[in-house]
Amino acid sequence: MTGNHGNIVRSSLIREAMTLSRSIVSKGKNVKEAVDRALNVLGTKNSGVDIEIIETEYKGIILGLGSKPAVVRVTLKQLNNAEEHPEHHLNLVKLLEMEINNIDFTEDSKSEEAVELKQAAAIQEDLHGKVWVREGHIFCKDAPNKYPLVSPAQGVKLYKNNEAVEKTVIVSENDILTVELSDEERAPKWELLLSDNKMEALLKIVPGVRIYRRLKDAAPSNFIQLEVEEKIIPIMIDSGSMMNEIRAIGIVHGVDYTEIARACTSDEAGTFIIAKGNPPTPGKNGCFLPIKEVTIKKGVMERPDGTVDYREIQEFPSVERGQVLGVIQPPMPGIPGQTTTNEFVPPPEALPLTVQEGRGVVLVEDGTKVVAIEAGQPDIKMIGTTAKISVVPKLVVGTDVSLQSGNVRYIGDVEVLGSVQDGMLVEAQGNILVHGSVFKSKIIAGNSVIIHKNAISSTISAGKSSMLEQELTGILGGVYNQLSQMMVAMHQIMSVSAFKVRTIDRTGLGPLLKILCDGKFKSVPPLIISLCNKIKTGKCELDPEWLSLAELLHQNFITPQASGLRSMYDLEVFLKKVEMVYKSAATEKEAVNCFIKASYLQNCELYSAGDIQIAGNGIYNSKLYAKGMIQLDGYVRGGEIFAEKGVKIREAGTKGGIPTKIQVPKDQTIMINCALEETVIQIGNKTHTFTRETQLVRARLDEIENLILQ
Fold first, then answer.
1. I want to staple 34 with a disulfide (CB 3.0 to 4.6 A). Which of 28, 176, 556, 679 is the partner?
2. Which residues sit opposite 640 in a β-bridge?
3. Boundaries of each RNA-binding protein KhpB N-terminal domain copy (predicted)?
4. How far apart are CA 415 and CA 225, in angstroms?
C-alpha cells in the first residue's frame, strides 16, 4: 500500500487492533491533547471511554527546566464486535500481518504508525491459558487443561472478585482482578543559615519527590509474579518563595543567583553556598627592617672555579660603632570587609613594633632607627610585636689558646685565630670560631661552634644555654600558672566585706601571700626555690633578666616579710614581668642559630641544640647528638650518632672493624650513600644491621611502624 489510500487503511487497521486491547496510554503537552490523541487512535468519542489522568503537565520552575508532558490512559467501556465474531478477529490478524510485511520499515520505522502496528501485532499472539499485565491491568485467557496463575507482590493488595488474595491463585476470564497501589508525595525541605561571622549564607535542601506506583508489565505466561514499578519525579523548590526568605533575613550582598537556581532544581540533598561576603584584608604590623646583615649565614664561599672553600665560611655578621642596624617600619592599616547582610567588618588592628634597647644599641630619630654604639654581632629576638635588639661584643684571641693565654670565658662571641691546645677551655655565651684545630679541649658555646680544621679527643657543645633555658622555661611556666591562680584568689578575698583593706594598705601584700603559700598554694615556695637555684647555678650563661627575676621571686614569695608588693596593682605588674620572661624564653630560638661545623673528628663528643655538619673527611670513633639534623660529607667509622631531625651520611661503617650505630626518632629518616657491614641503624625502636655493603640506603618507618629500607 502506498499514498493516502495506504495511510487510511493502516490507520483503520491500527484502530481496530487497539480496540481489541480495550485501552491506550497517550502523552501530550497537556491533558486535552493527550486525550485527543488517544481518541483519534481508538476511533471513538468521549462518551464511549473511561479516562484516567496518570500525570498532569509540569512547566518547570526556572527557564522551563524540569518540564514534563501530561500522560492519560483511555479505556473503552465495552468490547468491540470483533470479539463477538472470531472469524473477523482472524481476518484482522491476517490483515495486520500482511500490512506489517508490506511496510518499508527502513523508511517508516520511526513513524508513530509503524510503532503502533508492531504493538497491535504483538497483542494478537496465542494467549489461551495465559495471564499477563499490560498498562497496569491484569488480563487472562481461558484454555482447556490450562490454568493461569497469579502471585501477589509485596506492597500490592490483590483482589479477586473483591476478595483479598495473599498467595498464588488461579484466575480466569470471568474473574474481576483489581489491585490497590498508593502513590506518595514528599514535599521538599530547605533551610537558610548564616555563618557566625555572616560571611557566608548557606542553603541546606532535601529535595521533594512524587512517587507513582503501578504494576509492571508482564508478558503472557502460565504464571506471573506481580511486580511494582515506581516512577519518581522530583519536586522542585519554588525559587520565588526562596528569594523572599533570602531578602527577609537581610541577605543582600554577594548573592549567587546561579547557585540558588542549581539548589532549587537539584535532585540530591546538599548544602549550597548562595552568598559570600568580602572578608577584611589584614594590615601589617610594624616591623624591623635591617639595613646591615644581622642574621647568621650557614652557607660557604664558592671559588670562581665552582669549588667550595670551607675555610672561608662567613657565618657571623658584625657591626661597627655608629652603624645603623635598621629602621622601624610603622604599621599599615588593613582594608574593611562586608558581610552578606551588608554590614561593615573592620580589619584586625595593625600594631606598632615595640623595641627594647639591649646592650650596645640606641634608638634615634624619634625611635625610628636603631644604631650600634658598640662593635660586635647584632642579636635580634622577636616576641610577637616586641623586638629586643642588642649588639653582642666579640673577643678576638690572636694566638693559640694555651697555657700561656689561659682558658677563655666570655659573655659575647669568641674568635680564636690559632688552635686550642691540650686541656684548655673556651666558653662563650655567643658563638665560637676557631680557625685552627682543637686538641683534647672543651669548647662550650651558647650559640654555635665553627672549627675550620680538626677536633681530636675533645668535647664540643653548642647551645648549652638553650638547654638550660629550656629547663628553666618549664619550671617558670608552672610558677606563672600558680601565681595567676593566686592573684584570682586574692581578688576574691579582698571582695569580702569583712576583709580589712586598710590593713593591706599599711602592711602590704606580704602577710596575705604568706597565708596563701602556707595554705592552698603550698607548692609555690618549693617551685620558686627550685627555679632560683637553677638560675643561680647557670648565672654565667643566662641573660640578666633571669637573674633579676630570680631575685624578685625569692624576695616576694620566699621572704614575704620583705616583699615589695604593696598593692594588687604591684602584683599585676610583677605577674606581667613573669609572663614576659616566660613567653620570651618559650619562643626563643632553640636551633636556628645553634649548630656545630668542623672538618674532621676523632674520639670526640659533640652536642648541638641545632644541626651538626662535618664538611671534611669525616669522623672516627666519636659520639654525636643533635636536636636538629646531622650531615656528614665524608665517612663515619665507629661510634654513635643520634639526630632528632634525620641523618645524611656519605659512607658509614668499617670493613670488619668497630660497629657504627646511627639512630633517629620514629618519624625521621636515615640516608646513607654507602652502608658497610656491621653498620647498625635504629629508627624509633626498630633496628637493622647491615651484613654486606649496601648502596643508596633510605630507611624510615611506615604507618604501622615497620622498618622500610629503600
1. 28
2. 623, 661
3. 25-77
4. 99
